[in-house]
Amino acid sequence: MSAKVVAGGNEKWEAVIGLEVHVQLATNSKAFSGSAVQYGASPNSLTDPTVLALPGALPVFNEEGLRLAMRLGLALGCTIAKHSRFARKHYFYPDQPAGYQISQYDEPICEGGFVPILEEGVRKNIALTRIHLENDAGKNNHVGPRSLVDLNRAGVTLCEVVSEPVLRSAREAADYMRSLRQIVRYLGVSEGDMEKGQLRCDANVSIRPRGEDTLGTRSELKNINSFKFVHQAIDHEIARQICVIESGERVVLETRLWDADAGISRSMRGKEEALDYRYFPDPDLPPLEVSDETIESIRSALPELPLDARERLMGLGLSADDAAQLSSECSMLEYYDATLAHAGDVKHAKLAANWICAELLGELKRLEKGIGESPLEPARLAGLLRLIADDTISGKIAKGILPKMLESQEEARDIVEREGLGQITDTGALEAVVDELLAKNPKQVQGYRGGNQKLLGFFVGQVMKATGGKAKPQVVNELLRAKLGAE
Predict the structure, then answer these.
(1) Whole-number Å distance between alpha carbons of 89 and 95
(2) What is the pTM of this model?
(3) CA-CA distance, 217 to 243, in Å (whole number)?
(4) What is the pLDDT of residues 413-422, one digit of tens each?
(5) Among 200, 57, 183, which residue's Cα sits nearest to residue 134?
(6) Which residue from 254, 282, 257 is spatially nearest to 269, judged by alpha carbons?
(7) Domains of the chain by range and CATH?
(8) Cα–Cα distance, 400 to 352 (Å, whole number)
(9) Which of 107, 132, 191, 379 lies in disulfide reach of 342, CB 3.0 to 4.6 Å?
């Protein structure tokens, strides 16, 4: 494969990419029956007559799935349809007992909207066509020459997020996937665990000469389940299509599978079109009717989204890296905002960010806990930060207090008072320590006065050692400079 891929194509060709991302919604039961949803359960243990498509079994839609799909749609700026309908999408797989999938066709629950991404630090909105509801198929497990069917996943509630064909590179597509995963986790719509198949991507890829508006023949890459593989598979497909066309052949409309181990895609089948699926309204399911009150109730409960939070935190003076880390998970952002609110002053924004991102997360990692499981509540952490900010204790002393606060319910001030850890700010008391130190180290004093300014660090260290780290560094520096500057 000789075609060089550059920024979604090469100097002559441009890539056109649209993604269909299947999101497993966080419902306890399946889309149209009461069977439980549980990853890792014994094969075929989570089925029922509806999942097995037994005669006489009728579907009843899971209302929680509708609520979660609407929550995602509203967060992404979609228009919510007050009237939507399920259809039957016919195809046969061994893991699809009914011979059709219940999905939404011409009347989806959500239309329009966008997924925001960062492109070289600049916000860019990737337009959506629709978000629709459907149920999942089961899973074929291939063991040597045999294929074993597990129907535990069959019937699980999905929503499919369909983008417009506006992505232009594999990198953009992977960034889109990352952003969407972060959003569904923020919203509590899905765990978004790609290893468990809770977020899967079908990528439609075509190429065209740069500057043209017409679309080329596309290939669909099926069921890609990692950001890395999305990037690799699309880059490979762009290069493959360039090679096909430049060798005088034509790209075939087809579905391809990505072989991550070999780093290549393989033809799976000819690509189906809507007519092949013989869509028609499901006669067993009434239309979904949604009121304005329901829509507004869901909209009013939406949290701040990750990129909005990131921009807000940077507006407080935080670095891009700290803002990105603190807005990476909803629980992290909530912890930070609560800490800052209890600290009572926005001037503590950077201090709080530093302590959460570095010190607290480090201690929680040692305890094998996440931020949502932290035994140190935001209010108590804020108390520790106030002691640092008003110079009651040094940052070094605070680092020693933090583990004690994680192991108990004590307030930072109580620990400081009990253990006598407050900073020494009394100039008279520190002056006596400095005088004694200078008298004991005449050679170093002479060296400093002779131009070796680095010796100031030696003296500061000795004072801190003599005071058990309690001396206020600023006062110590001022005293030493004054005394060392005097002959």
Answers:
(1) 15
(2) 0.84
(3) 14
(4) 999 888 777 6
(5) 200
(6) 254
(7) 13-295 (no CATH), 304-419 (no CATH), 427-484 (1.10.10.410)
(8) 17
(9) 379
